[in-house]
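A favour, since you know our structure tokens better than I do. Could you add the entry underneath, on a fresh line?
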Amino acid sequence: MDDWQLVALCRGNHAYLFFPPSTFERKEERERREMKAKAICGVCPVQDPCFAHAVAIREPFGIWGGTTEIERRNTVLAG
């Protein structure tokens, strides 16, 4: 585990917000969950290394560094 992961705000009781549930999730529920997760990322002191890590390993799931898997893929393709 990298040092930045130890201080990431996504650790703890609200970690469930960062990944889809194993059961069906309606679009509105997903959007609410992602918005809450991104709000946490927005004040996280390690948002940048988190995003860089997710891009580097091509993380296919979840909110990392304030981005969804689709947003990360679009960032990589754009740049």
About this structure: The longest helix spans residues 27-42. The radius of gyration is 12 Å. The chain has one domain: 3-78.
